[in-house]
């Protein structure tokens, strides 16, 4: 669409100009840039001055439409305030693009909150690291939000160092937490003692989670024959199990019990079976192990060696169980299973690189013949 600027000396106001164009049967939007469009363009220019890309600005406008109509002076002030904290330009663009709502929050003049947080985290560097993880720290109310949450965790026996380490990995601890008799009972049932290495993880994960969600995840494992207390104690030994989705746990458990023919209780001692990716690690490696066993090859990975094999890196697994065999043996066992994704991609990459080398060689040959 082509935009044309027209001058109507007899119509001094834009309203009259638009009316005249409509009377002539023309679309005014083709001839005039609206005030809103002009303001949006000016705001975009401010963002660009601070290092934001067109893509960043588009995301900000989409997530926070009101930012299109912000005062340029106010926007400059907010961006300058965040920068004055020690945030670099590259981190500033990431923070604002990730959390545009900061632009409608009151950041200026809250030095008491910033000073408290800097003291809490021990240094400005650690504080800035926490801000990059959770930009909303700059907007939380000190007396209504931050201080009460800190007291809750201190009452549970978490030291300041433990609290800081958890805030860095679980930034939602400030905004999402609740304490009640039910959650106290859930923590107690994990059998994790105060001062133990896993205590801070158990407390923080349970306090930020809904009771209903925790009970649903417990019931998901109980249906396979485990006792509730066993599941809670599993959460105590490996707290991150409680963060896995119900669907992922269900798929892994179905394969462990139905295909691998292992007892459900195996995950109590080997929780890695719940964390590993079923489609790219557990399934292809286990099926390869069955193929190796059927062919009478060594080494084989049966229980308990299978657990070690599943946790190996892709490179180490290939060296230990695949590359140790002659080429003809490797080619005869690969087609019988679905090749693990990472190894497949690597092999395809090697093929493409070989073709590229051949192509480059042919081009060099052609060039040399042309010069001759």
From TrEMBL:
<dbReference type="InterPro" id="IPR038538">
    <property type="entry name" value="MTERF_sf"/>
</dbReference>
<keyword id="KW-0806">Transcription termination</keyword>
<keyword id="KW-0805">Transcription regulation</keyword>
<comment type="similarity">
    <text>Belongs to the mTERF family.</text>
</comment>
<protein>
    <submittedName>
        <fullName>Uncharacterized protein LOC107786153</fullName>
    </submittedName>
</protein>
<dbReference type="Pfam" id="PF02536">
    <property type="entry name" value="mTERF"/>
</dbReference>
<dbReference type="GO" id="GO:0009658">
    <property type="term" value="P:chloroplast organization"/>
</dbReference>
<keyword id="KW-0804">Transcription</keyword>
<dbReference type="GO" id="GO:0009507">
    <property type="term" value="C:chloroplast"/>
</dbReference>
<keyword id="KW-0809">Transit peptide</keyword>
<dbReference type="InterPro" id="IPR003690">
    <property type="entry name" value="MTERF"/>
</dbReference>
<dbReference type="GO" id="GO:0006353">
    <property type="term" value="P:DNA-templated transcription termination"/>
</dbReference>
<dbReference type="GO" id="GO:0003676">
    <property type="term" value="F:nucleic acid binding"/>
</dbReference>
């Amino acid at each position: 669409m082509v935009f044309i600027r027209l001058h109507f000396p007899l119509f001094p106001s834009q309203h009259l100009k638009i009316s005249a164009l409509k009377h002539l049967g023309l679309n005014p939007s083709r001839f005039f840039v609206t005030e809103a469009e002009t303001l949006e363009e000016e705001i975009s220019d401010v963002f660009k001055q601070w290092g934001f890309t067109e893509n960043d600005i588009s995301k900000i406008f989409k997530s926070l439409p009101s930012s299109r109509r912000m005062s340029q002076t106010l926007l400059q002030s907010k961006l300058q305030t965040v920068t004055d904290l020690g945030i670099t330009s590259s981190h500033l663009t990431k923070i604002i693009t990730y959390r545009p709502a900061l632009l409608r929050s009151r950041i200026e003049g809250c030095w008491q909150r910033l000073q408290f947080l800097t003291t809490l985290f021990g240094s400005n560097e650690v504080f800035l690291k926490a801000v990059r993880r959770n930009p909303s720290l700059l907007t939380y109310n000190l007396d209504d939000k931050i201080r009460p949450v800190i007291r809750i965790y201190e009452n549970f026996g978490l030291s300041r160092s433990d609290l800081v380490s958890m805030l860095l990995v679980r930034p939602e601890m400030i905004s999402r937490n609740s304490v009640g008799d039910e959650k106290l009972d859930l923590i107690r049932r994990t059998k994790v003692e105060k001062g133990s290495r896993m205590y801070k993880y158990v407390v923080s994960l349970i306090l930020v989670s809904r009771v209903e969600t925790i009970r649903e995840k417990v019931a998901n494992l109980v249906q396979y024959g485990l006792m509730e207390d066993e599941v809670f104690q599993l959460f105590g030994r490996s707290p991150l199990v409680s963060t896995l989705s119900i669907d992922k746990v269900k798929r892994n458990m179905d394969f462990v019990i139905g295909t691998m023919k292992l007892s459900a209780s195996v995950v109590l001692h080997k929780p890695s079976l719940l964390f590993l990716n079923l489609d790219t690690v557990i399934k292809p490696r286990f099926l390869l192990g069955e193929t190796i066993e059927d062919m009478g090859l060594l080494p084989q990975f049966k229980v308990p060696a299978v657990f070690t094999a599943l946790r190996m890196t892709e490179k180490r697994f290939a060296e230990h169980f695949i590359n140790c065999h002659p080429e003809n043996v490797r080619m005869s066992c690969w087609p019988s299973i679905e090749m693990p994704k990472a190894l497949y991609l690597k092999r395809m990459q090697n093929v493409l690189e070989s073709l590229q080398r051949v192509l480059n060689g042919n081009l060099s040959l052609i060039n040399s013949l042309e010069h001759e």
